[in-house]
Design a protein that fits this description.
Helices cover about 40% and strands about 25% of the residues. The two termini are about 35 Å apart. It is an alpha/beta fold. The model has no long low-confidence stretch (mean pLDDT about 80). It has 2 domains: about 70 residues, Transcription elongation factor, GreA/GreB, N-terminal domain (Helix Hairpins, Orthogonal Bundle), CATH 1.10.287; about 90 residues, Transcription elongation factor, GreA/GreB, C-terminal domain (Chitinase A, domain 3), CATH 3.10.50.30.
Length: about 170
């Protein structure tokens, strides 16, 4: 996989921190778990050993993925982009006849799908996603319409735009 990934400086730093955490904290923990499980005897029927090896495989896969992303990443200067709301925390409210009642969505607008997966606790949408693309230069109060992959139109309104640190 040799794709160029465009990341904001903040997104790049977050991936670097995740990689460092995985290598320096999580990897030694998993190695210790494997060592302890080996000490329990017969490995052919050792569920702890199998679980630790599965965890190690997932960990090494993520480390490899992050190393590849960072190696092939280019850091973009969001000040030089024509994406006014990049890095902003955006709250939208779905409106229209087919909208779920009072449904709001709060997310951070990021530059690439790579940045969307860095932290599962906070929602991040790429500028390449339908909602993200619609929000690129939107302002509070704007009413926007997107078309879903099924062809259904969904209307929403921008409720708030905040800088990421202002939450």
């Amino acid at each position: 996989m040799n794709n160029k990934h465009q990341l904001t400086e903040r997104g790049f730093e977050k991936l670097e921190l995740e990689l460092e955490e995985l290598k320096n904290v999580e990897r030694p923990k998993v190695i210790e778990l494997i060592k302890e499980a080996r000490g329990q005897g017969d490995l052919s029927e050792n569920a702890d050993y199998d679980a630790a090896r599965d965890e190690q495989a997932k960990l090494e896969s993520r480390i490899s993925e992050l190393e590849n992303i960072l190696k092939n990443a280019s850091v973009i200067d969001k000040n030089n982009l024509d994406i006014e709301n990049l890095g902003k925390v955006i709250t939208i409210k779905f409106i229209g006849s087919n909208a779920p009642r009072n449904m709001k969505l709060k997310f951070t607008l990021v530059s690439s799908n790579i940045e969307t997966s860095t932290n599962p606790e906070s929602l991040k949408l790429s500028v390449d996603s339908p909602i993200g693309a619609a929000c690129i230069d939107a302002e509070v109060g704007d009413r926007l319409t997107i078309k879903s992959s099924t062809g259904k139109e969904q209307e929403f309104q921008i409720v708030s735009l905040e800088n990421e640190g202002d939450k």
